[in-house]
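Thread title: Can someone regenerate the structure for this chain?

I was given the following input by a collaborator and told the matching structure tokens would be attached. They weren't. Posting the sequence so someone can regenerate them.
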Amino acid sequence: MGPIELMHFQTFSETAGNTPPLTDPTNGLTFPDLNAPPFGGEEFITGMGLFIGQSDAFFTFLTNLAEAADAAQREV
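Best answer:
Regenerated them for you:
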């Protein structure tokens, strides 16, 4: 399962992450350009507005969690 999920993540990061904005003609649903503001750059989580109203402690926790995930190493 792990390698499959890794491939999904890689595909999303490399392909979908660089996709220009797209609107579905059948229902008008728009997928934004994830590289353009407010989505592009290092402030994605705050810029997208999903967590409006959360405390600074919440964002500190998320930042620490992301940094720990980035630094994680698989144990053999």
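Residues 35 and 42 are 10 Å apart (CA to CA).
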